[in-house]
Amino acid sequence: MYKRRAGRGARAGGPALPPPLIGALGRARVVAAGMLVSAGGFTGYLVIGLHTSYWAVMVPAMLLSGVGMGMAMTVTADTVLASVPKDRSGSASAIAETATELGAALGMAILGSVLTAVYRNTLDLPGGLPAPAASAARDSLGAALQAAANLPATVAAQVSEAAREAFVDGMHAALVCSAGLAALVAVFALVTLRNVPKVIEEAEEPDLVTAP
What pLDDT digit, counting tens, does each position of 3-33 carry? Predict the structure, then answer.
């Protein structure tokens, strides 16, 4: 619960930063800066281990990634809506929201696949483990812990430790991908938004042609 609150709070605070920054830096640089801040937050997660302090490491990383995403998403949404006539703002908002949801779904699918692949490849189970327990442990961290609960105490501790370490390795791999993608998006924003003015003039509504 605290993790979600920290992330949501940071993302909610991110939109307060863009207005003054747009006037000073321009839209492209603010979006790029937001994505680079997020990349820094993702990179901060790489120091997380099995016994890492939540408040000393995880909260700062969540704040950075949340603030950065809030900055970038606020500016991009404002740019989309400001670039179309008022009578098309609903359609533009729907397209932007659909793109956001699609990107989130694809991101979770891709990064989840990376995490799972690394987890399975780095999982080092103790020898002599029953085949059903070994198969369950390779499926996911939750399945590994559930399987360990039915094993002798010593073996259960080894399986649990191995599964947790493999999961952290997978999480690190996914976060490296996240940081790299965020940096690429920052470069993409600098290129594609470089000609977008700081203040976008209100788009003119198309003239309605009446039939004779």
Answer: 444 555 455 556 777 888 998 999 999 999 9
pTM: 0.84
Taking the C-alpha atoms of residue 45 and residue 66, their distance in angstroms, rounded to an integer, is 13
- Is residue 211 situated within a structural domain? no
Number of other CB atoms surrounding residue 34 within 10 Å: 28
Range of the domain at 88: 2-192
For 134-161, the DSSP string reads HHHHHH-HHHHHHHHTTS-HHHHHHHHH
Whole-angstrom Cα distance, residue 188 to residue 185? 5
Closest residue by Cα to residue 40 from 10, 63, 56, 22: 63
Domain with residue 53: its CATH number is 1.20.1250
**Per the domain annotation, does 9 fall within a domain?**
yes
Listed residue (23, 9, 20, 63) closest to 200, CA to CA: 23
